[in-house]
Amino acid sequence: MVKASDTPRLWFWWLVFILLIGISVYFALRLAHLDLKLRSSQPGLYSVARFVDGDTIDVNMNGKVETIRLIGVDTPETHKPNTPVQCYGPEAAAYTKKLIGSQNIRLQADPLDTNRDRYGRLLRYVYLSDNTLVEQKLITEGYGFAYIQFPFEKTAEFKAYEQEAKAAGKGLWSACKVMVETNGRAQTNALSPN
Question: Which numeric CATH code is attached to 45-188?
Fold first, then answer.
Protein backbone atom coordinates (compact mmCIF):
# COMPACT_ATOMS: atom_id res chain seq x y z
CA MET A 1 0.00 0.00 0.00
CA VAL A 2 1.31 3.43 -1.00
CA LYS A 3 1.22 6.09 1.72
CA ALA A 4 0.24 9.68 0.96
CA SER A 5 3.77 10.78 1.94
CA ASP A 6 5.24 8.48 -0.74
CA THR A 7 3.18 10.00 -3.63
CA PRO A 8 5.50 12.99 -4.27
CA ARG A 9 8.52 10.66 -4.20
CA LEU A 10 6.80 8.29 -6.68
CA TRP A 11 6.00 11.18 -9.02
CA PHE A 12 9.61 12.30 -8.83
CA TRP A 13 10.88 8.86 -9.95
CA TRP A 14 8.29 8.69 -12.75
CA LEU A 15 9.51 12.09 -14.01
CA VAL A 16 13.13 10.92 -13.82
CA PHE A 17 12.21 7.76 -15.72
CA ILE A 18 10.35 9.71 -18.44
CA LEU A 19 13.20 12.22 -18.68
CA LEU A 20 15.76 9.41 -19.12
CA ILE A 21 13.62 7.84 -21.86
CA GLY A 22 13.35 11.21 -23.61
CA ILE A 23 17.11 11.78 -23.42
CA SER A 24 17.75 8.25 -24.75
CA VAL A 25 15.42 8.78 -27.70
CA TYR A 26 17.02 12.16 -28.45
CA PHE A 27 20.55 10.72 -28.52
CA ALA A 28 19.43 7.66 -30.52
CA LEU A 29 17.97 9.97 -33.18
CA ARG A 30 21.12 12.12 -33.22
CA LEU A 31 23.31 9.03 -33.63
CA ALA A 32 21.10 7.73 -36.45
CA HIS A 33 21.35 11.11 -38.21
CA LEU A 34 25.12 11.19 -37.69
CA ASP A 35 25.46 7.63 -39.04
CA LEU A 36 23.46 8.58 -42.15
CA LYS A 37 25.58 11.70 -42.61
CA LEU A 38 28.82 9.71 -42.22
CA ARG A 39 27.70 7.08 -44.72
CA SER A 40 26.91 9.72 -47.32
CA SER A 41 30.16 11.63 -46.83
CA GLN A 42 32.72 9.06 -45.73
CA PRO A 43 36.32 10.11 -46.23
CA GLY A 44 37.62 8.39 -49.34
CA LEU A 45 34.19 8.08 -50.94
CA TYR A 46 33.43 10.45 -53.77
CA SER A 47 30.53 11.29 -56.03
CA VAL A 48 30.79 11.15 -59.80
CA ALA A 49 30.29 14.60 -61.32
CA ARG A 50 30.26 13.38 -64.94
CA PHE A 51 30.72 10.21 -66.95
CA VAL A 52 33.21 11.04 -69.71
CA ASP A 53 33.27 7.61 -71.40
CA GLY A 54 33.70 3.97 -70.45
CA ASP A 55 37.11 4.32 -68.80
CA THR A 56 37.13 7.96 -67.66
CA ILE A 57 34.98 9.79 -65.10
CA ASP A 58 35.01 13.18 -63.41
CA VAL A 59 34.82 12.94 -59.63
CA ASN A 60 34.03 15.59 -57.04
CA MET A 61 36.90 15.31 -54.56
CA ASN A 62 36.10 17.60 -51.64
CA GLY A 63 34.85 20.43 -53.83
CA LYS A 64 37.39 19.99 -56.64
CA VAL A 65 36.49 18.03 -59.78
CA GLU A 66 39.24 15.64 -60.87
CA THR A 67 39.27 13.54 -64.03
CA ILE A 68 39.91 9.90 -63.17
CA ARG A 69 41.32 7.45 -65.73
CA LEU A 70 40.52 3.89 -64.66
CA ILE A 71 43.72 1.86 -64.27
CA GLY A 72 44.25 -1.20 -66.46
CA VAL A 73 41.20 -1.00 -68.71
CA ASP A 74 40.74 0.54 -72.14
CA THR A 75 37.23 0.89 -73.54
CA PRO A 76 36.50 1.72 -77.17
CA GLU A 77 36.53 5.45 -77.93
CA THR A 78 33.41 7.58 -78.08
CA HIS A 79 34.72 11.12 -78.50
CA LYS A 80 38.54 11.21 -78.65
CA PRO A 81 39.72 14.01 -80.96
CA ASN A 82 40.67 12.80 -84.46
CA THR A 83 39.34 9.31 -83.66
CA PRO A 84 36.01 7.95 -84.91
CA VAL A 85 33.52 6.45 -82.50
CA GLN A 86 34.54 2.83 -82.14
CA CYS A 87 32.44 -0.30 -82.01
CA TYR A 88 31.10 -0.88 -78.48
CA GLY A 89 32.26 2.55 -77.29
CA PRO A 90 28.74 3.88 -76.63
CA GLU A 91 27.80 0.59 -74.92
CA ALA A 92 30.90 0.74 -72.67
CA ALA A 93 30.15 4.33 -71.68
CA ALA A 94 26.52 3.44 -70.90
CA TYR A 95 27.61 0.37 -68.91
CA THR A 96 29.99 2.38 -66.73
CA LYS A 97 27.29 4.96 -66.08
CA LYS A 98 24.73 2.26 -65.20
CA LEU A 99 27.20 0.28 -63.05
CA ILE A 100 28.22 3.27 -60.92
CA GLY A 101 24.92 5.12 -61.07
CA SER A 102 24.51 7.71 -58.33
CA GLN A 103 26.44 5.81 -55.65
CA ASN A 104 29.65 7.11 -54.16
CA ILE A 105 32.86 5.39 -55.20
CA ARG A 106 36.19 4.65 -53.56
CA LEU A 107 39.40 5.44 -55.42
CA GLN A 108 42.68 3.59 -54.96
CA ALA A 109 46.08 4.34 -56.45
CA ASP A 110 48.39 1.57 -57.64
CA PRO A 111 51.93 1.53 -56.20
CA LEU A 112 53.42 0.46 -59.55
CA ASP A 113 51.59 3.05 -61.64
CA THR A 114 52.18 6.78 -61.83
CA ASN A 115 49.82 9.12 -60.03
CA ARG A 116 48.73 10.91 -63.24
CA ASP A 117 48.85 10.14 -66.94
CA ARG A 118 50.26 12.39 -69.66
CA TYR A 119 46.91 14.23 -69.88
CA GLY A 120 46.96 15.11 -66.16
CA ARG A 121 44.22 12.64 -65.22
CA LEU A 122 44.47 10.81 -61.89
CA LEU A 123 45.05 7.09 -62.39
CA ARG A 124 42.94 5.08 -59.96
CA TYR A 125 41.15 1.81 -59.39
CA VAL A 126 37.46 2.54 -58.90
CA TYR A 127 35.51 0.54 -56.33
CA LEU A 128 31.77 0.59 -55.73
CA SER A 129 30.41 0.73 -52.18
CA ASP A 130 30.13 -3.10 -52.13
CA ASN A 131 33.86 -3.38 -53.10
CA THR A 132 33.10 -4.30 -56.72
CA LEU A 133 36.07 -3.28 -58.87
CA VAL A 134 34.69 -1.36 -61.85
CA GLU A 135 37.66 -2.20 -64.09
CA GLN A 136 37.14 -5.93 -63.48
CA LYS A 137 33.47 -5.70 -64.44
CA LEU A 138 34.25 -3.77 -67.63
CA ILE A 139 36.79 -6.38 -68.75
CA THR A 140 34.92 -9.54 -67.68
CA GLU A 141 31.69 -8.39 -69.32
CA GLY A 142 33.43 -7.53 -72.60
CA TYR A 143 33.12 -3.74 -72.46
CA GLY A 144 36.86 -3.10 -72.50
CA PHE A 145 40.33 -4.53 -72.95
CA ALA A 146 43.01 -5.15 -70.33
CA TYR A 147 45.25 -2.12 -70.84
CA ILE A 148 48.69 -3.50 -70.02
CA GLN A 149 51.00 -1.03 -71.76
CA PHE A 150 52.01 0.36 -68.36
CA PRO A 151 52.89 -1.56 -65.18
CA PHE A 152 50.26 -2.05 -62.48
CA GLU A 153 49.74 -4.68 -59.77
CA LYS A 154 46.67 -6.33 -61.27
CA THR A 155 48.17 -6.93 -64.74
CA ALA A 156 47.97 -10.74 -64.58
CA GLU A 157 44.41 -10.66 -63.18
CA PHE A 158 43.20 -8.26 -65.85
CA LYS A 159 44.80 -10.33 -68.65
CA ALA A 160 42.99 -13.41 -67.30
CA TYR A 161 39.67 -11.54 -67.18
CA GLU A 162 40.17 -10.50 -70.80
CA GLN A 163 40.94 -14.07 -71.90
CA GLU A 164 37.77 -15.31 -70.17
CA ALA A 165 35.61 -12.64 -71.83
CA LYS A 166 37.22 -13.32 -75.22
CA ALA A 167 36.72 -17.11 -74.90
CA ALA A 168 33.08 -16.58 -73.93
CA GLY A 169 32.54 -14.10 -76.80
CA LYS A 170 31.21 -11.46 -74.41
CA GLY A 171 30.40 -7.93 -75.50
CA LEU A 172 32.85 -6.43 -77.96
CA TRP A 173 34.48 -9.82 -78.55
CA SER A 174 31.47 -10.98 -80.56
CA ALA A 175 30.03 -7.61 -81.67
CA CYS A 176 33.17 -5.97 -83.11
CA LYS A 177 36.20 -6.56 -85.23
CA VAL A 178 39.16 -6.43 -82.82
CA MET A 179 42.51 -5.29 -84.18
CA VAL A 180 45.84 -5.28 -82.34
CA GLU A 181 48.16 -2.36 -83.05
CA THR A 182 51.93 -2.76 -83.36
CA ASN A 183 52.35 -1.59 -79.74
CA GLY A 184 50.07 -4.46 -78.60
CA ARG A 185 47.07 -2.26 -77.81
CA ALA A 186 43.74 -3.75 -78.88
CA GLN A 187 41.15 -1.56 -80.63
CA THR A 188 37.74 -2.12 -82.14
CA ASN A 189 36.67 -1.07 -85.62
CA ALA A 190 35.16 2.35 -86.23
CA LEU A 191 31.38 2.52 -86.40
CA SER A 192 30.16 3.30 -89.86
CA PRO A 193 28.41 6.67 -90.12
CA ASN A 194 24.67 6.42 -90.74
Answer: 2.40.50.90
